[in-house]
Task: structure prediction
Amino acid sequence: MLHRFLIVFVISFNAWAQDSYIDYPSPYHPTINQRGMVVSQNIDSSKIGIEILNMGGNAIDAAVAVGFSLAVTLPRAGNLGGVGFMLVYLKQRNEIIAVDYLGSSPRNSNIQDLFGVTLPRNYEKADRDIVRYGYKASTIPGTVAGLIEAHTNFGRLPLSSVLKPVIEQARNGIRVSYDLHMALKSEPQLRRDKESRKIFFRNGSAVAENTILKREDLAQTMEKIAAEGKKAFYEGEVAQKIVDAMNNNGGFISLEDLKNYKPRFSEPIRTAYRGHPIFAPRPPSGGAIVVLDALNILENFDLGKYKSNSTVTYHLLGEALRRGHMDRSRHIGDPSFYDVPVEKIISKKRARELAKTINFKSASSYKSMSP
Result:
C-alpha cells in the first residue's frame, strides 16, 4: 500500500551549495494525487522515485532512491557527502519519527586550529569562510547513514533494488540541467578543487547545459553501498579515500570519525497553526525552530484581512521570520552539549509577546534582532 508512509524528506548539503540561489517562477495551483507523489529539485530524480513506487516500494524506498539520485543530478541539493533530517509518518502506528543525520564535528578539530585566532576575543579577525568552504569546513557526512538506516527500519524493497536505477543513472549519464550548470558556474571555489575540476569542468568552464555527464566513480561507490550497506561508505576503501583527501587538504575527518558515526532517531517537535498540527525535527535543526516560531507569531494576526501579495503581508512574514532567526541564533546548538529551551521558544505565550513587538510602520532594527 502506497499510503502506509507519509514522509517529509530534507537533505542538507555541502557548504558550497548554500549560496547557490536560482530564482524560479512559482506555480500557484495545487497539485493533488490520491496514490502517491514524489517531489525533488530535479525531475529525473523525481522520476526515479516514481519508478520505485511503481515497483511496489513505499515512500521510504522512493525517498532513499531520490536522495541518492540527487547526488548524480544536482549535488547541491543532495549528495553522499552531505547531511540532513527526515520526518517519517507511520500510518499504522499513527506515529511520527524524526531522523537526524546531521554531521558531527571530527574529534580532532577545534576552534583554534580551525580559525587560527583566539575566540571569542578575536572574532572580527576570524575568516568565517573557513567554516563554509573546503575540507576544514567538512563535518562527518551523515547522508548515507541516515538514508540507509531509514531504509533498514522503514523500507520495503531490498536496498539493491532501490539503488539499481540510481546506479544506472550515474553510469549511463544525465543531461546537465540549467540548475546544475548554474550551481557549478556560480561557485568559484569548486574550480580550485582538483577533484571538482575533473568531474564538473571542461577547459576551465562548468559543464554546459544539456551535456551528458557520466559518473562511473559514483556508480561504483553506490554499487558497494547497495551490496554492503552503510559499512561500504564508512569503512574500507571509500572511507580511506575520504580520509586521504582530508589529510592532503588540511581537513580533520578520520577513519575513527567515519566508523563511529550514527544517525539519531527521536520524536519531532510540534506546534499547531490555526488548528493544523505542524511537525519538525528537533535541534540541532535550526530551520525547524525558525518556521515553527514564525508560524506561532503569525497566528496572532488576521492575515485574511490582507491580500496575499500586499506590503503588509510581506512585512508580517519578514518580521515573523526575523524573530524566528533571532531565536535560532540565540539558542540553537548541539543538544548533546547544550540544553536548547525548545518548549519555551515555540510556546504560544512567547509568540504572543514577540508579535506585540512588530511595528506595522517600520522594520525592526538590526540590533534588536541580533543574537
In short: The chain has two domains: 2-265, 274-369. The mean pLDDT is 90. The CA atoms of residues 174 and 188 lie 23 Å apart. The first helix runs from residue 43 to 54.
